[in-house]
Amino acid sequence: MSKRYKITTGWQTSDRYRFDSDGETVTLVREYADIKDTQGGYEYSQGAWRVKATYASGRSHTRARTFYGELAWNSSQRLFDDVILAQRFGQ
After folding, report:
1. Cα–Cα–Cα angle for 48, 54, 58, rounded to 5 degrees
2. 59: Cβ–Cβ under 8 A, 6 or more apart, which residues?
3. What does the buried/exposed string (b/e) look like for 1-31 if buried means 16 or more CB atoms within 10 Å of the residue's CB?
4. Could you give the CA distance from residue 13 to residue 3 in angstroms, rounded to a whole number?
5. What angle do CA 63, 24, 90 make, to 5 degrees?
6. For residues 49 and 67, is the Cβ–Cβ distance under 8 A?
7. Phi and psi dihedrals of 80, rounded to 5?
8. d(CA 86, CA 19)
9. CA gyration radius, the chain
10. What CA–CA distance (Å, rounded) separates 12 from 25?
11. Are residues 24 and 56 in contact, defined by beta-carbon separation less than 8 angstroms?
12. DSSP type of residue 32
């Protein structure tokens, strides 16, 4: 986690998408949380966004990417959409 920002709330689900890929089920979730800037003391509503991909096969595992700050929403939406498009077109 970034040392500059501290997450002050629990993660809330914004979007969810499930698909099958090579015999395993993949669940893609986009979540947000409020953060506090540890340098300036400011609090930001929905200042952190993350994209989690959970792979359910023989061994279940999760990969996540978290974004902070002004462009967090945009960056997380782009990653979420890119993963869905790649799955649809087999890339």
Report:
1. 160
2. none
3. eeeebebeeeeeebeeeeeeeeeeebebbbb
4. 23
5. 85
6. yes
7. -60, -50
8. 12
9. 15
10. 22
11. yes
12. E
Triad 49, 53, 59: Cα angle to 5°: 145
68 by Cβ neighbours in 10 Å (0-12 / 13-18 / 19+) ranks as buried
Using CA atoms, how far apart are residues 40 and 17, in angstroms rounded to an integer? Answer: 36
Residue with tokens 């023989």: 58
- Per-residue pLDDT tens for 27-47? 999 999 999 999 999 999 999
Its pTM surpasses 0.70: yes
Q: Which residues contact 36 (CB under 8 A, 6 or more apart)?
A: 5, 6, 8, 42, 43, 44
pLDDT at residue 87, as a whole number: 82
- Token output for 83: 């993963």
Here the tokens at position 77 are: 């939406």
